[in-house]
Design goal:
mainly alpha
């Protein structure tokens, strides 16, 4: 019998319980910064449509970075107010 859907992939990485929201956001920001640097470096080695596509990915990463920074700033204000 053939299954209608495949098994979900096995997770290789997990996030440990008990890590503060601020620490998670800092790690998220560092990961996004690394992804942005990698995509920009690679994009500048390409030409034409592929370069434009990868620069689009870099822009999406940058937007995610701005959102993460805004959330991180909000966490700092909430913690200070409490």
């Amino acid at each position: 019998m053939i299954k209608p859907t495949p098994n979900p992939p096995i997770r290789l990485f997990t996030v440990a319980d008990g890590i503060s929201t601020e620490d998670l956001l800092v790690n998220l920001s560092e990961t996004l910064a690394s992804a942005n640097a990698l995509s920009c470096d690679l994009a500048f080695d390409l030409e034409g449509a592929k370069r434009e596509e990868l620069l689009g990915v870099a822009q999406l990463i940058e937007l995610a970075q701005l959102l993460a920074d805004r959330v991180h700033d909000g966490v700092g204000h909430t913690t200070a107010a409490a």
